[in-house]
Amino acid sequence: MTTRKETDPMEALIMIDMQNGFLNPESSLCIRGARDTVPVCAKMLAAARASGQMVVIVNRRYREDGSDVERTRLAAWEQGGKPLTPGSVGVISEENPPELRPMDTDYVVIKQRYSAFFQTELDLLLRRKGIRKIFLMGTTTPNCIRTTCYDGISLDYDVVVIEDACSSNTAEIQQANIGDMSRVGAEIVDSETVIRRWKHNM
Prior knowledge:
19% strand; 34% helix; six-stranded parallel beta sheet; 7 helices
């Protein structure tokens, strides 16, 4: 992990699963709306870094033997060339696209399940850095964003979902899950609102 500056931020931007294996149509795990959100996610990363917010890149990684792949996903994973494994290349790789790759000042967390909190060090890391509010973006809204949102609320974080920086396979799925997260207590905002807020606080 990389040490940031002496004055720790009180907010964190968390980007989830924006990796080649989820972004490319040729991948068996592709989320159809994910690629279109890459520019917005890149803009949010730049804004967070410029304003001194903590940036956490949460990526999925599977063992090559498939022993940690969700049972509901295992068949598609095997048939699709075992995406998101160490050493995977091209459209199915675990790498973030160039616009979204971690910088030295960012933190990287690896997960094997939907929620970024489930059996990872994320909660400990955020608490050690004094974080109380988290901003979520990435893919996929009904799975990884939603479960991270619910776990974050359960852990007493203030959770903000950046709607135009999240993605689903259909607009209907996106709207239904954004609505559910709003009703459970998450704040739903767009990227420009967050950027203005951070600039105002600089």
